[in-house]
Amino acid sequence: MNTESDGVNLQARSWRRSFLPVAENVPEARRGARLVLASWAVSEDASETIALIVSELATNAVRHARVPGRCFDVAMTYDGGKTVEIEVSDASPRHPVVKSFDPDATSGRGLLLVEALSDAWEVRDQELGKALWARVLG
C-alpha cells in the first residue's frame, strides 16, 4: 500500500500525556518523549533536540505556571517525514517572557534554548491557559 502522495507521508503520528506539575515529572516527560520518538524512528540528533525542548517547556510549566488541581500536558505530532511539533500546555494564562539573564544564574535560559533549537516557536492562548508550541525539522 502506498502511503505517500506528492512526497507527503500520510502516516502522521501523535502522542499526548498529562502530568502533575511536580519537578519529578519533568524527567518523566522527557523519557516519554524519547521513547515515542524512538518508536517513530526520528533521528537521534533530532530526538535529543526535541527531548531538551520538552524538558525546558515542562520545567517552565512546573516552575512558573502551576495551577492547583491542574495538570500540564505534553503533546507531539510527527508528519512521518521530517517535522515534529511539540506542545506543552498548562492552565496558567500568564505568558512566559524571554529575558536577558545573569551569566552566573543557574536558571533562566529555557526559552532562549527553545528559541535557538527550534525552527519556530510561539505561545498560543487556549480556552483554559496557554500552550507553548515548537517545531523541529529533523
Helices and strands, with pairings:
Elements: E1 4-5, E2 8-9, E3 13-19, H1 25-39, H2 44-64, E4 72-78, E5 83-90, H3 110-117, E6 120-125, E7 130-137
Antiparallel strand pairs: 1-2, 3-4, 4-5, 5-7, 6-7
Helix pairs in contact: 1-2, 2-3
Outline the structure in words:
By secondary structure, the protein is α+β, with helices and mostly antiparallel strands. It contains 3 helices and 7 strands. It has helices at 25-39, 44-64, 110-117; strands at residues 4-5, 8-9, 13-19, 72-78, 83-90, 120-125, 130-137. The strands form 2 sheets. The chain has a 5-stranded antiparallel beta sheet, with helices on one face. β4 and β5 form a beta hairpin. α1 packs antiparallel against α2 (44-64) and α2 (44-64) packs antiparallel against α3. It starts with a strand and ends with a strand. Mean pLDDT is 89; it is low at 1-10.
- Tell me the Rg in angstroms: 15 Å
**Quaternary arrangement of the chains shown?**
single chain
Which strand-content bin applies to the residues? 25-35%
Q: Termini separation (Å)?
A: 25 Å
- Total helical elements: 3
Averaging pLDDT over every residue, what do you get?
Answer: 89
Summarize the helix and strand pattern as letters: EEEHHEEHEE
Structural class: alpha+beta
Task: Report on the biggest sheet.
Answer: 5 strands, antiparallel
Number of strands: 7
Are there runs of 5+ residues with pLDDT below 50, and where?
1-10
Dominant shape: globular
